[in-house]
Amino acid sequence: MRTLVRELPSQIGETVTVSGWLHKKRLLGGLNFITLRDRSGVVQSLVEAKDELEKLRGMQIGTVLSLTGTLVADERAPGGAELHDVKIEVISPVTNEPPIEIDKPLGHKSENLDTLLDHRVIGLRNLQEQAIFKVQDTITQTLRRYFSEHDFTEIHTPKLLAEATEGGAEVFTMDYFGKTATLAQSPQFYKQMMVGVFERVFEIAPVYRAEPSATTRHMTEYTSIDGEMGFITLNDLKLFLSGLLNAAVDDVWEAHETELKRWNATKPMLTEEIPTLSMEEIHEMYSKATGEKTVGEKDLRPDEERWICEYAKKSLKSEAVFVSEWPASEMKFYHKVNDENSEIADRVDLLFRGVEITTGSMREHNYEKVVEQLKRLAGGREDDPGFQPFLSAMKYGMPAHGGFGMGLERVTQKIIGLNNVKEATLFPRDINRLAP
Amino acid sequence: MRTLVRELPSQIGETVTVSGWLHKKRLLGGLNFITLRDRSGVVQSLVEAKDELEKLRGMQIGTVLSLTGTLVADERAPGGAELHDVKIEVISPVTNEPPIEIDKPLGHKSENLDTLLDHRVIGLRNLQEQAIFKVQDTITQTLRRYFSEHDFTEIHTPKLLAEATEGGAEVFTMDYFGKTATLAQSPQFYKQMMVGVFERVFEIAPVYRAEPSATTRHMTEYTSIDGEMGFITLNDLKLFLSGLLNAAVDDVWEAHETELKRWNATKPMLTEEIPTLSMEEIHEMYSKATGEKTVGEKDLRPDEERWICEYAKKSLKSEAVFVSEWPASEMKFYHKVNDENSEIADRVDLLFRGVEITTGSMREHNYEKVVEQLKRLAGGREDDPGFQPFLSAMKYGMPAHGGFGMGLERVTQKIIGLNNVKEATLFPRDINRLAP
Predict the structure, then answer these.
(1) pLDDT level of residue B104 (50, 70, 90 thresholds)
(2) Chain centroid to CA A188: how far?
(3) Which of A361, B76, B121, B418 has the largest CB neighbor count within 10 A?
(4) Do B153 and A176 touch (CB under 8 A)?
């Protein structure tokens, strides 16, 4: 009968069997320790008998073992207990030395990220690496729970499309039985159409961008968290996003003390309602503080994004901030212009720890207006077959609606405080990397 | 202040405002009724005042409305209550007649499925259509909860691959910055690799098959539910799948009485442990019962699958049955041969209501053996770059492990009792269909 490592604290003094991977060994002659890893943690074991020690000869890290021994309380041991008098059963011997060290922190220096990714399959067995994806698992569960609690229906929309969603060069195309298909860059149109069906929908699924640059921020495939809601205002959307980010951060910090310590992660400071500053306000504050003149610019500079996040942390007690009042001239065709001021779009960007993690916006739901915007802003046509399904949703009755999309990997990165979004991706893809 | 339709039963006698879509109208002159749909249901409303009635002139189904009126108990009305003395606010007028009827059951005859799918965006607003995807939402939530309760970690693996996962012709290929990429047919290798990291992993994500035939069972894109577990036996896998299917069925029937009635769905009869019959047993029983000789055949015929499911329903009180003892000669290279009988593979197929919904199998985790099987059964090579990551997982320590993959759409189809898997897919894709 196998006991999980996390169940051990309740079994001090008993004889137990644990199974897992040889994670570390220190065979010092006098005192011989090995550490075993299972899905729930690691336990240290003292190997005393000569014939048991003999079984470990030539066995490399990764060897799959069962250990049967007496559990002894020991404050110095990780988990507060240690196995003594063990009998070892080698289940799957490993006789080759692993290509990458897994029994110590990897440290993630940017100069060795490529090596780490080349050996990802083995490198992920490191506890520090695993921590990232345990946190990511919790983030995903929390977001889904939050969506469900707020009456969203989960949807699965196609990634194989006849035409590119938002145009542009960054789209993968492929042969589809003699026709051309593209890979979805986002579920934008589908989630809007589905507001006409379920009012509130979400999807967490891969999207694809033929992103030709290798940066710390971009990948060709990532997991997009998309939400869309009907019968709301921009303020409702801000409240929803505030609640969503707070829930994710709270749950991660409640569930993953051990994992977060491995990265010296600090809990993001957040207010219940994330504060909002208009783009012009930010430009003015930044220009005044730094002497760099950005007033009148139609976007935030990367430096400005970092600066305003630092400012919000210090002065507003929030490491997240909404940027409002984006110029209408820069908007996407499906965005909505503000009813009172046609110069601005009903859009907010959510900045978190120095970068934008999502754009939320109201969508133009009036058929005539969205057709006009499609023509003027995207060079599209009302009778374009690629826009027909989307336009028909508007034609046959849509309420005011809005939504957002954000990358799961970027949120994970920022919550933990990692340098590169690829560190928060199991098997990242970019222009140079299609394996493992 | 908006009230949701599902909240109405507690507000009889009060003045309430509901918002949603005009779902049905019966303007009979004397008695004028309209039905409004929001995300939580439909409510009937009596329109009495002439000037209110006037607002509905020319308004088609789909028009977005707010109705303010007095809620009156009425047993004949759906939901047991009706709005009287309503004031109407037209939020988004619809002046064109919708291309498809949405205010009555669509009926889903196979001869009109293509029409339904052509007008999917509007057709999904039908309550019977919506029912399918509310059920699917619950299935997905239940499966994820079941995985999490059993200590699985959710993973997100890449769908852009350098090489085809399982070879064969049914793979989409595309240009990837001058190289060739393929779309994942399954996360098979990745989930096995991840057993070395988290022991138990699952993923619910799209997969792609360049399936050249248009059938009721095949699509080019579907949502695959994949699970993989280490330190288990084939029997553990059967127990897990039994629990998973029971949980999904129970939760769907608990949550969706109304939705299931729309399809006259009957709750599948299931035993706590799904019964197992060997392929040879089934061949013998079928041959004896029908006179068709299948004994010795290496697969089940479709008729045989239906027959054994009928048999299991009648004689074993289960509409699901495991088929065991598959011939080793037919297995995939990563499957495991039975330790005691090298003629059979450690594999079970789960049949449910006449069709296979998943194949579960143990995997060969011994490096030398899996390399031998790769060469013999798949014509692969140990130094093939496409197999390197997978093989390295085995080389550096893997326990006995097994898993399964099943299509969310097929499970949804079978639970409700639909004829075609595309009915259980929001926007299905096949050789002939890439839109909407």
Answers:
(1) confident
(2) 19
(3) B121
(4) no
**Res. A259: pLDDT tops 80:** yes
What confidence score (pLDDT) does residue B30 get? Answer: 80
pLDDT tier, B165 (very low <50, low <70, confident <90, very high otherwise): low
- pLDDT of A106: 60
Note whether B86 and B138 are same-domain residues: no
- Say yes or no: B79 and B149 in one domain: no
Name residue B66's beta-bridge partners: B19, B89
- Which phi-psi region, left, alpha or beta, contains residue A83 (left: φ > 0; alpha: ψ -120 to 50)? beta
Same-domain status, B80 and B131: no
Residue A221 has its nearest CB partner, among B158, B230, B396, at B158
Which chain A residues in 139-158 lie under 8 Å from chain B, judged by CB atoms?
A: 140-141, 144, 148, 151, 153-158
Cβ separation of A153 and B173 shorter than 8 Å? no
Which of A70, A92, A114 represents a domain boundary (last residue)? A92
Element (H, E) at A409: helix A408-416
CA-closest candidate to residue B278, choices B226, B240, B321, B336: B321
What pLDDT shows up at residue A167? 63
Shared domain for B310 and B225, answered yes or no, is yes
* Closest-CA residue of chain A to B432: A177
What are A288's two structure tokens?
Answer: 């005044």
B388 touches chain A (CB under 8 A): yes
Which of A196, A221, A386 lies nearest to residue B160, judging by beta carbons?
Answer: A221
Q: Which two tokens stand for residue A305?
A: 């994004």
pLDDT-derived band at B75, boundaries 50, 70, 90: confident
Q: Do B88 and B196 belong to one domain?
A: no
Instruction: Give residues with Cβ within 8 angstroms of A212, minimum separation 6.
Output: A170, A431, B177
B14: in domain: yes
CA angle A355, A357, A362 (to 5 degrees): 125
CATH number of residue B352's parent domain: 3.30.930.10
The answer to whether B186 touches B158, Cβ cutoff 8 Å, is: no
Query: Among B156, B165, B208, B409, which would you mutate to test the A interface (most chain A Cβ atoms within 10 Å of its Cβ)?
Result: B156
Q: Which amino acid is at B182?
A: T
Taking CA atoms, what residue in B is nearest to A120? Answer: B389
* A159-208 per-position pLDDT tens digit: 999 976 566 679 999 999 999 999 999 999 999 999 999 999 999 999 99
- CB of B21 less than 8 A from some CB of A: yes
What's the total number of domains in chain B?
2
pLDDT at position B166: 63
What average pLDDT does the segment A17-33 reach? 92
Cross-chain residue pair A159–B221, CB shorter than 8 Å: yes
C-alpha A246: how far from chain center: 15
In a domain, B432, yes or no: no
CA A196 to chain centre: 28
Whether B83 and B172 share a structural domain? no
CB contact under 8 A, A39 and B366: no
Range of the domain at A174: 127-424
Per DSSP, helices labelled H in A56-126 are 113-118, 120-123
What are the tokens at A262? 């491995």
* Within-domain flag for B314: yes
Is A220 at the interface with chain B, CB within 8 A?
A: yes
